[in-house]
Each structure stands twice: as structure tokens, then as C-alpha cells.
Amino acid sequence: VAGILTSLGKRVVAVRHPMPYGDLAKQACQRFASYEDLDRHECTIEEREEYEPHLDNGCVVYAGVDYERILREAEKEADIILWDGGNNDFPFYRPDVMITLVDPHRPGHEITYHPGATNLRLADIVIINKIETSSPEHVDLVRANIRKVNPEAVVVDAASPIFVENGQLLRGKRVLVVEDGPTLTHGNMAYGAGAIGARKYGASELIDPRPYAVGSIKDTFAKYDHLSYILPAMGYSKTQLEELEATIAGVDADVVVIGTPIDLSRVIKIKQPTVRVRYELQEIGEPNLADLLKAKLSL
Questions:
Q1: Domains of the chain, each with CATH number or no CATH
Q2: Helix-, strand-, coil-residue percentages of the chain, each rounded to 5
């Protein structure tokens, strides 16, 4: 969305929902325009996963606690404010256009989990993503649920094609897959883009990291017992980052597959060779987001 609006000549600033893991007074109004800002604010892995993709695309990000102050600061440098709800959070500002993305890898969640179910009902536009890797039955179920609770919404079909940097390194190799932490934990997924990419590029084995887990990483596996051959990238403190680093170091893997939205090797040391898995939204057919946004925002 930010890319579309920027291509139309608009200055876009993203505002993230609150992710308070530290000193709330210091975090009242945070502005991120570079990786150095992430370091200065001592961002957790989860925060970096949410902010870095915007920064990579040249989009300034605001976050914090005082959302009146955040809005006033963001307005000074933006033509359009883009609320990025991240973990399903509905906007704190009344939007002119509300876009909700649903995941057919988790069919039914769009009407059974709060606040996602609220977002679906509020949406002007609903994107059904990951169509290319989901079963037709799951896509049909999600589409039916959209019609049931929000028949006025415009539905956009989309895929999330996966790109693996140096994917040839995976063929025939035993790999450790590290995925986005929240997706696996409270998101209740047993796999992510990293696992899909590893299989797509011919990895011979996805190594079970549980025997190598230490400290809080071991506790995470005990709490979220649906996880097996995937390592969640937990990093909410210096100690936990060290435990994540130690867990990865203990795994006898030919390659570490980084399926998180960030370059994990910037945050911790990884001794094994690494490859990154990325994905981008790719719309299928019409209607498309660009036309819808131009019409709804009179651009």
C-alpha cells in the first residue's frame, strides 16, 4: 500500500500499533527512519520485524504510546498516514479507507479471533492472500466468511510469491529454519515462509531445534507445543537474544534459513551459512489495490 501511494506522488508515513516492551515514558513517541534508529531505541526482534520492511522501502515509521502526539508529528511530514495494525490491531485513528488482509492458511480465524474479526467487519477492502500456497477449499471458506460478515467489502485476490536469496545452497542440505516469532507463538502457526521456501528449493531435511534449545527458547517450545521443526525468532531481551544465538549455534545444520522479515544476522551472530526468504504481495486479476485506492481516496 505504501509503495502504491508513493508511486502516486504522495508522502507516506506509517504508524504502527503500540509495541511497548521497555520504558513507556521514553517510548511515548518514536520515529524510525533508519536502522540506526532501531538500535538507538533498543528495539526487540519483534519490533524490528515490523519496522524494517518499511524502512527498506524508504517509509518513515512512527510508534509508541501517545497516539495523539504521534499523529501530530506524523502529519508534519506526510500527505497520507498509513496505519499498520501489525498483530491484527484495529486503527486508533478513523480511517478513510480500511484494508484487512485474511490468511487462508488459517481458515476460520478471520471470524473467530479478536480483533481480527472486528477488522474484517470494518473493512472497505479485504485481501485474500497466499492463494497460491493454500488449498482451494480453504480459500473458498475464507471467501464465504467474508461474504457472510461483510458483504459490502471489495475482495482482492493475492499471492505471496517467495524469493530465496542463494536458494541453490539449500538443495540436498539439512537446514535449520528460523521463522517470525509471533506468527508461530500466539499466531498459532506451525510453519512460515522459511519452511515453504526451504522445501521449495529442495532442502533434504528441516532439523528439529527442540533438543538444542536453551533457556527461554526451551520454555517457548514447552509452552507452544505445536512447534517442531521450526525455531521461533524470540528476542525480547539481551538474555533471550543470547539464548537464541546459542540455540542456533548448537544445531548441526548445513544452512540456516532466515524466514523472519529482518536480516537476523544483524542482531545475533550465526556461524552457519545463511539464506534469507522474502515474500511480496502480488495481486491476482481485478479489482486491484491501486485502482481501488485512487477511487476511494480521489487520487
A1: 2-160+282-296 (3.40.50), 164-279 (no CATH)
A2: 40, 20, 40
